[in-house]
TrEMBL record:
Residues 4-245, 298-532 form the ABC transporter domain. Its main location: membrane. One of its GO terms (molecular function) is ATPase-coupled transmembrane transporter activity. The keyword Cell membrane applies. This is Energy-coupling factor transport system ATP-binding protein. It comes from Caloramator quimbayensis. Keywords: ATP-binding, Cell membrane, Membrane, Nucleotide-binding, Repeat, Translocase, Transport. NCBIfam families: PRK13648.1. The keyword Iron does not apply. Pfam families: ABC_tran, DUF3744. One of its GO terms (cellular component) is ATP-binding cassette (ABC) transporter complex.
Length: 565
């Protein structure tokens, strides 16, 4: 008998007319590792909520058909009973914490089960060591960075006895190194503890490196594909449904190489036989690009910042320029000081040393409001920015505060919502939206103000590939008007495709300021800043290409241009 079994299962939320899940027939065997993927709004999170009991106990609605987990029907039990079978990591970390400290939060499941204190302490310490968070055991969870919160959530699930582990976007907000460690941890749990692992995730390349048994693709509430990675990757199933294939597979397809499941391309080592075709394409068509000088719009000069007078500097002696109409990526590991740096630039925090100049004029004494007229800042966590209940009102908030008439506000807001794929939700309560959709609302509220520089902290976190491309294509267009875009990102694909330059930070210091291609082909920098070598660079290594930077640039642009055709 299957561990998880859906039979002709449908679910309709209480406030909606049409079902979100339609006629789901799905069996997951004990011990399998399964990836559930699909575009935003496809129903994949709803499917996950049915498994972990949030439906129907938190999200009310109508169920038809049947769902059994380990022989029981979860919707006929309590959510506490279901938690004994299914442990969950939520995408929105803030909604998961219950303890006043990291240690208390990880100990929650032990306390519920009346585990003796000495065993509890050992279990908590072991879980936190596995995610490299033992030094934060006494810290308040809400004071942690996004990536650190995610690690604590993973530690919490390690402390449960549930045989089914459900991860809802476990890589959101994690730097590449931490993402790999998180997937290594999940992989280790799966192999060593014989858990059944279900992962809901957009970052398919990062996930598939870790030997998944199946990919289940959901679209419009229905299962549209279900197979092994080697069965699904040769076709265009993922891209057809708005999902991103691994980069190295996009390279193969951009060169019109015919693929089949026998090629076993889920492992990059198996594509060595295509070397001649790939290298020939590169040698014939790659060209050196001429990058003309651009006007400096903002200069950061020797900036240092610390939280308290007697504390150590969080960022130290940072200097770089932001040019007119460029996209710059700020890269580095969690805790490197990236978010702090951008808060200083936007005026939310004030540096103790150094100066910031806009068009040559020092702006250190400008008020946050005045600085906000030229520098728009979008926080990493959308819940920290939202002030209104309705989507339209949130995006209109800044415009109304600046005294624009309502006709102007209406047109500007509607245009912005269309660009951000949110127009259909304009009259929705914001809390009814997914985490990724709320993220886009906060971005839209800044874009509506049309600042000269836009700072984005993890702009595409929680967004599917289709919405990601649509949104970044818009940013690509507005930079041509002279607007500069600075973005913190852990998504190397995003940096490769859309940023001209990368500033890389580690331990509060700037360690390199160069083209993205040079940065992401530099092994020393990648290791020092906890970045990740892209699979295109790995291809260059497998194919013995000497100039990895040029190879990376050529195929990144070839893929991007092809996707835009």
């Amino acid at each position: 008998m299957s561990l998880i079994s859906f039979k002709n299962f449908s679910f309709r939320y209480k406030n909606l007319k049409a079902p979100t899940l339609k006629n789901i027939n799905l069996d997951i065997e004990a011990g399998q590792k399964v990836l559930i993927a699909g575009p935003s709004g496809s129903g994949k999170s709803t499917l996950a909520h049915c498994i972990n009991g949030l439906i129907p106990f938190t999200y009310k609605g109508e169920i038809t058909g049947s769902l059994e987990i380990n022989g029981i029907r979860p919707y006929e039990k309590s959510i506490y009973e279901i938690s004994k079978y299914v442990g969950t990591i939520l995408q929105d970390q803030d909604g998961q914490f219950v303890g006043l400290s990291v240690g208390e939060d990880v100990a929650f499941s032990y306390e519920n089960d009346n585990v003796p204190v000495d065993i509890m302490h050992k279990g908590v310490n072991k879980a936190l060591k596995e995610v490299e968070m033992i030094n934060f055991i006494k810290e308040v969870p809400h004071n942690l960075s996004g990536g650190q919160k995610q690690k604590v959530s993973i530690a919490g699930i390690l402390a449960t006895s549930a045989n089914i582990l459900l991860f809802d976007e476990p890589l959101a907000n994690l730097d590449p190194y931490s993402s790999k460690k998180a997937m290594d941890t999940i992989d280790s749990i799966h192999k060593n503890q014989n858990k059944t692992v279900i992962v809901v995730e957009h970052r398919i390349e990062d996930v598939l490196e870790h030997d998944f048994d199946r990919i289940i693709v959901i679209d419009n509430g229905e299962i549209v594909a279900d197979g092994t990675p080697d069965e699904l990757l040769p076709d265009n199933i993922l891209s057809y449904y708005g999902l991103r294939e691994p980069l190295y597979i996009e390279v193969l397809k951009s060169c019109n190489i015919r693929l089949s499941k026998e090629d076993k391309i889920s492992k990059i080592e198996n594509v060595k036989k295509f070397k001649d075709s790939i290298v020939k394409d590169y040698n014939l068509n790659s060209k050196v690009k001429d990058e003309s000088d651009k006007k400096v719009v903002l200069s950061v000069e020797n900036i240092s910042y610390k939280y308290y007078k007697d504390s150590e500097y969080v960022i130290k002696d940072i200097s770089f320029n932001i040019n007119s109409g460029e996209v710059m990526a700020i890269l580095g590991n969690n805790g490197a000081g990236k978010s702090t740096l951008l808060k200083v630039i936007s005026g939310i925090a004030r540096q103790q040393e150094g100066t910031i100049k806009y068009m040559g004029e020092p702006i250190d004494r400008w008020s946050v409001k005045k600085r906000g007229q030229v520098i728009g800042y979008v926080m990493q966590n959308p819940n920290h920015m939202i002030t209104k209940n309705i989507v339209f009102d949130e995006v209109a908030f800044g415009l109304r505060n600046n005294g624009y008439d309502e006709d102007f506000v209406k047109k500007r807001v509607e245009d912005t919502l269309k660009v951000c794929s949110l127009y259909q939700y304009r009259n929705w309560p914001i809390m009814s939206l997914s985490y990724g959709q709320r993220k886009r609302v906060t971005i839209a509220s800044i874009l509506a103000m049309q600042p000269k520089i836009i700072i984005l902290d993890e702009p595409t976190a929680g967004q599917d590939y289709r919405n990601y491309r649509e949104f970044m294509s818009f940013l690509d267009d507005i930079k041509k008007t002279g607007i500069s875009i600075v973005m913190i990102t852990h998504d190397m694909h995003l940096a490769l495709e859309y940023a001209q330059r990368a500033v890389v930070m580690s331990e509060g210091r700037l360690i390199i300021n160069d083209t993205v291609y040079n940065v992401l082909s530099n092994k020393e920098i990648i290791e020092r800043a906890n970045l990740k070598e892209t699979s295109i660079s790995k291809l260059a290594k497998i194919y013995d290409v000497e100039d990895k930077s040029s190879f990376l640039e050529y195929f990144t642009n070839k893929i991007k241009d092809g996707a835009n055709c």
